[in-house]
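Fill in residues.
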């Protein structure tokens, strides 16, 4: 039996994973399901209960319940190979600040630069700075 906060947190991760990989209308789909090659989900993990059991067995529960100022957990599930799939042996718990440096969006890419600028306004996250066409991480 999984406690309610863990269940809710894993369900959110599961739902977000499916949306990014399977929903062409999701804002992140171009970088996951719409990428070439597409990021895929290990088929048994389409079922939440199987996903939850495998995650808890493989990488265990979140290392702590610490949260950021906005209430979100400091721990995120990360794909070890950021170009790989959501599948066994490719996931781990990672502190959110460390995870920012591992995101494909943080790497220099013309395609992603276009995505981060909408309606002529800079939409860069706080942790990225664009200097001379190169993204610099601003993690403090």
């Amino acid at each position: 039996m999984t406690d309610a906060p863990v269940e809710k947190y894993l369900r959110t991760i599961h739902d977000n994973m499916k949306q990014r990989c399977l929903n062409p209308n999701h804002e992140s789909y171009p970088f996951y399901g719409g990428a070439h090659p597409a990021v895929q989900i290990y088929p048994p993990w389409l079922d939440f209960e199987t996903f939850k059991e495998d995650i808890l067995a493989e990488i265990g529960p979140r290392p702590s319940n610490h949260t950021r100022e906005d209430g979100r957990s400091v721990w995120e599930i990360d794909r070890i190979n950021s170009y790989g799939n959501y599948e066994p042996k490719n996931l781990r718990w990672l502190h959110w600040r460390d995870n920012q440096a591992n995101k494909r969006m943080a790497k220099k890419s013309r395609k992603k630069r276009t995505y981060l600028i909408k309606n002529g306004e800079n939409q860069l996250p706080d942790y990225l700075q664009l200097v001379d066409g190169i993204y610099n991480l601003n993690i403090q």
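The helical segments are 4-22, 48-58, 96-102, 110-116.
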